[in-house]
Design brief:
Layout (H helix, E strand, L loop, with lengths): L21 H5 L3 E7 L6 E8 L6 E8 L8 E2 L8 E5 L5 E5 L15 E5 L7 E4 L7 E4 L5 E8 L6 H13 L13 E2 L2 E2 L4 E9 L13 E2 L14 E3 L5 E9 L5 E9 L5 E5 L4 E8 L5 E8 L9 E7 L5 E3 L9 E5 L5 E8 L2 E8 L6 E2 L5 E7 L6 E7 L2 E8 L9 E2 L11 E9 L5 E9 L8 E7 L16 H5 L4 E6 L8 H5 L8 H14 L4 E11 L1 H12 L5 E5 L5 H7 L3 H8 L7 H6 L12 E6 L7 H13 L4 E6 L9 H18 L12
Parallel strand pairs: 33-34, 33-35, 35-36, 36-37, 37-38
Antiparallel strand pairs: 1-2, 2-3, 3-4, 5-6, 6-7, 7-8, 9-10, 10-13, 11-12, 13-14, 15-16, 16-17, 17-18, 19-20, 20-21, 21-22, 23-24, 24-25, 25-26, 27-28, 28-29, 29-30, 31-32, 32-34
Helix pairs in contact: 7-8
Length: about 700
C-alpha cells in the first residue's frame, strides 16, 4: 500500500536470515589481512568471529589454498586472537598476538608479541617481544630479516629502560603527557608519551630460542610524538635497506610525510623523497632492490584538492619519475610485478575499487578488474597469478585469484573460511544528471518484493570522507540490514567522491553545501522516478562527512521524514580547531579568523532555525576525528528549538562503533527511529539503552 501519510503506511513482511536478525548479523564471520607465502603455495587470511560471550570480535588465522582445490583450514586459536599474518622465506607464518607465553612468568596483561608458526605445523612460539608490544612487521623476502614497530618511550630503546620508565609512571600515578609539537591525538587515541620505533631483528632463529633472546637494534631512536607512522615501512629483498614513511613538520602546526631510507646494518638514514608540496608514502622495493615505488599525494590548498600519482625512485641517486602522469585517478597500495617490469596498484574508478597494472618503462595503466572492490593485493613470485580480497555491495570480502595481465576480468573465487550469506534483495546501478550536467553514479539496494504495486520506502545514505566513494561492502554501514526490513537504500557518489576524475572532486572543494548537496538531491530525484520506490516515505542518513551532509540536508529541505546523523560536523569553525588534524582541514577551509567566508557559507549550525525534520544524533566520546563537542552542540541546538530528536551516545566508542553489542544497539536504534518517522509505527525504545 502506498500513502502520502507516513502515519498510515505499512511495512513489508520481514524475511528470515542474518540481515533480519541482528544477533545473527553481528555473528557473521569477517575476512581481512590476506598474505601469500614466498613459494606461492599458501595463503593466510584473518577471520573475525564473536567470542564465546558475544561481546568482542576476535581474529584467527586460516589457510586458503591458492589453487582453489583444498578447503580452508584454521591455523591459530586463542582467546586474544591473532593478526597481521606475514610469511617468512622458510615458510613459517609470523603473526602478532597478545596471547600469553606459556614459558614466561605471569606479570600483568600480555602485550602483543611476534609469534611464529612452524612450516610443518605444531605449536606457535613467541619470537620477539617489547615492553610496548609489537604493532607491525616487515620481512625481507630474500633473507628473512625482520623489522618490527613498537611503541617506545623517549630514551627507551633498551627494553629494560623502556620497561622501567613505564613502571615509574604507573607507580607514580602519572598519566600526563607533555607535548612540544602538534598534533596530540589521532583518530581514537592520544599520542605520546611513547612513539612508534622501528627495530631490526635480522633473521629470526629457527630453534626454540625465547623471544627475550632476539637482539633488537633501534633504527629510529630519536622518534618522539607525534612522529612515526608504524605501518608504512618495508625491507629491501636483501634486508640491507629499510624504506619508511616519516612525518616531518610542515609550517608552525602542520605535518607532511616523506620517504626515508635507513641502512639496517648501522641505522644511518637519508631522505629518499622529501617533497615540500606533497605527502609521500607507501614505499615498496623492486625485486632487485634498486628501485622504490611510492605514492605522492599533493598537499591540498584553498584552491585545489589533492592529487595522487605513483613515483618510481632510483635508490642510489634518488632520481624520481612519475609513473602515472595523466592518469585521472588516485592510485594507492603500489607493488612491483614478480619480474619488476610493471607495477600493480589499486584505485577507485566509477564506484569500484579496481586493480591496475602499469608498465615501468612507460604506458597507460590497464584496469585488470571489472566490478568489485579489491584489497590486500598479493603478487606471486613466479608471476603467474595475483591474489586479493574482493568485495562489492552485493558480497562481503572473499579471497580471489586473478590473471596478472588480463583486463576487466572477473576473478576466480577461492574456497573461503566465511560463507557469503544470501541477500534480502537486489543491487542496481543508477545514474543521474546533476544541475551542471555532471553524471552522478549511485548504487541502489532494492528489498525483496519491491515493485510498482508494493513500492519500498527510500533511505539515502551519504558516504564519509569526503574524498572516497561507495564501492565496497561495509559491516558498519550495511544497507542489507535495512533491505531486510523493506527499505530501498540509495548510495550516491556526489561531488568530492573519488574515482570520477579530478574535476569531479573540484566541483565540491570548499563548497560542501553546493554541488555535493545538489548531486545528492539529483540522485534522490532519479531514484524516486523508479516504480519500485515510494517517494512519499523517505529518510536520509550519513556518518562523518555523510553526517555533515545529513545536517546540511536538514537545514536545506524538509523532503525527508527522518534524518540520522552519525559522528557529524555541525559547526565547521569549532570542528576545524578541535579535530585531530586541524592543519589538513584548514588547507581547504582557510583560517577561520582570516578567511571566514567558507565557514559562514557552509556550516550547518548557522541555519539551525530552518530544521523541522526529526533527527537522530549519534556520537562516540572517543571520536577524535570529529570530537564529541559537535554532537553535543547539535543535540542542544535541536532540543532548544523543539525539533523532535534523540541522541544515541557511546561513551567508549570512537569515530566508528566497533564492539558487537554497541553495533547491534546502533542498528536497533536507527531502525526504531526510522520505523517511527518513515513507516508510521509506534516508537519502540531498544531494550538495552
Amino acid at each position: 500500500m502506498t500513502s502520502t501519510d507516513p502515519g498510515t503506511a505499512t511495512s513489508p513482511e520481514r524475511p528470515d536470515g542474518p540481515f533480519a536478525d541482528l544477533a545473527q548479523f553481528v555473528a557473521l564471520p569477517r575476512l581481512g589481512a590476506l598474505a601469500l607465502s614466498a613459494d606461492g603455495t599458501r595463503l593466510a587470511v584473518s577471520v573475525q568471529t564473536l567470542d564465546p560471550k558475544g561481546t568482542k570480535w576476535r581474529s584467527a588465522l586460516w589457510e586458503v589454498d591458492p589453487a582453489g582445490t583444498r578447503p580452508p583450514r584454521r591455523l591459530t586459536r586463542s582467546a586474544p586472537g591473532e593478526s597481521t599474518p606475514t610469511w617468512a622465506p622458510d615458510g613459517s607464518l609470523l603473526f602478532t598476538s597478545a596471547r600469553p607465553d606459556p614459558d614466561a612468568a605471569e606479570d600483568g596483561e600480555p602485550k602483543p608479541a611476534l609469534w611464529s608458526l612452524p612450516v610443518g605445523g605444531g605449536e606457535a612460539r613467541p619470537v620477539l617481544t617489547r615492553p610496548g608490544g609489537v604493532s607491525a612487521v616487515a620481512v625481507a623476502p630474500g633473507t628473512g630479516d625482520v623489522v618490527v614497530a613498537s611503541a617506545t618511550l623517549p630514551g627507551g630503546s633498551d627494553p629494560q629502560v623502556d620497561e622501567d620508565r613505564r613502571k615509574q609512571r604507573t607507580d607514580a600515578g602519572v598519566s600526563a603527557v607533555l607535548h612540544e609539537a602538534y598534533p596530540v591525538r589521532y583518530w581514537d587515541h592520544d599520542l605520546g608519551p611513547a612513539a612508534p620505533h622501528l627495530f631490526f631483528a635480522g633473521p629470526l632463529p629457527a630453534d626454540e630460542a625465547g623471544a627475550d633472546e632476539v637482539q633488537l637494534r633501534d633504527l629510529t631512536p630519536d622518534a618522539v610524538p607525534p612522529n612515526g607512522a608504524d605501518g608504512s615501512f618495508t625491507l629491501s629483498p636483501d634486508g640491507r635497506l629499510l624504506a619508511r614513511a616519516e612525518d616531518v613538520p610542515d609550517g608552525p602546526a602542520g605535518r607532511r610525510t616523506r620517504v626515508v631510507l635507513t641502512t639496517t646494518a648501522d641505522g644511518e638514514s637519508r631522505p629518499l623523497v622529501d617533497d615540500p608540496l606533497a605527502d609521500v608514502y607507501a614505499p615498496r622495493f623492486s625485486p632487485d632492490g634498486r628501485t622504490v615505488v611510492c605514492v605522492r599525494e599533493t598537499l591540498s590548498t584553498y584552491a585545489e584538492p589533492p592529487d595522487y600519482t605513483l613515483l618510481l625512485v632510483d635508490v642510489e641517486s634518488g632520481e624520481a619519475r612519475d609513473l602515472t602522469a595523466g592518469f585521472d585517478r588516485w592510485p594507492s597500495a603500489p607493488q612491483f610485478s614478480a619480474d619488476g617490469t610493471a607495477v600493480y596498484f589499486l584505485a577507485d574508478e566509477d564506484g569500484r575499487h579496481a586493480v591496475f597494472r602499469v608498465p615501468v618503462d612507460g604506458g597507460a595503466p590497464v584496469r585488470l578488474t571489472g566490478d568489485g572492490a579489491y584489497s590486500d593485493l598479493q603478487v606471486s613470485r613466479d608471476g603467474t597469478a595475483l591474489y586479493a580480497l574482493r568485495s562489492a555491495y552485493d558480497s562481503p570480502a572473499v579471497p580471489v585469484r586473478l590473471d596478472p595481465e588480463a583486463p576487466l576480468q572477473e576473478p576466480a573465487a577461492l574456497p573461503s573460511p566465511a560463507a557469503v550469506p544470501a541477500l534480502p534483495g537486489t543491487l542496481r546501478e543508477l545514474h543521474a544528471t546533476a544541475a551542471d550536467g555532471a553524471r552522478v553514479q549511485s548504487w541502489l539496494v532494492l528489498p525483496e518484493g519491491a515493485s510498482a504495486e508494493n513500492p519500498a520506502p527510500l533511505l539515502l545514505w551519504v558516504h564519509g570522507g569526503p574524498l572516497m566513494s561507495w564501492n565496497s561492502w561495509s559491516w558498519r554501514w550495511c544497507p542489507w540490514v535495512l533491505a531486510a526490513r523493506g527499505y530501498a537504500v540509495l548510495l550516491p557518489n556526489p561531488a568530492l567522491s573519488q574515482g570520477f576524475g579530478q574535476d569531479f572532486v573540484r566541483r565540491g572543494w570548499g563548497e560542501w553545501g553546493g554541488a555535493p548537496y545538489t548531486d545528492l538531491m539529483a540522485a534522490v530525484d532519479a531514484a524516486e522516478q523508479l516504480p519500485e520506490i515510494d517517494a512519499t516515505r523517505t529518510a536520509a542518513m550519513g556518518g562523518s562527512f555523510g553526517g555533515y551532509m545529513a545536517n546540511w540536508i536538514a537545514t536545506q529541505t524538509d523532503r525527508f521524514h527522518a534524518i540520522v546523523t552519525h559522528a557529524s560536523l555541525w559547526d565547521l569553525d569549532s570542528f576545524t580547531g578541535t579535530t585531530d588534524t586541524a592543519y589538513y582541514w584548514e588547507k581547504e577551509w582557510g583560517d577561520p579568523l582570516r578567511d571566514p567566508e567558507r565557514y559562514a557559507k557552509n556550516s550547518p549550525h548557522r541555519f539551525a532555525d530552518a530544521i523541522t525534520t526529526p533527527m537522530l544524533v549519534i556520537h562516540g566520546d572517543k571520536d577524535y576525528r570529529v570530537p564529541i563537542g559537535e554532537g553535543l552542540r547539535l543535540w542542544y541546538d535541536l532540543q532548544k528549538r523543539g525539533v523532535p530528536s534523540k541522541f544515541l551516545y557511546f561513551p567508549d566508542e570512537n569515530h566508528w562503533v566497533l564492539t558487537p553489542g554497541n553495533s547491534r544497539v546502533w542498528y536497533e536504534t536507527v531502525l526504531a527511529f526510522l520505523a517511527e518517522h518513515v513507516l508510521g509505527q509506534q516508537w519502540e525504545r531498544p531494550e538495552l539503552v
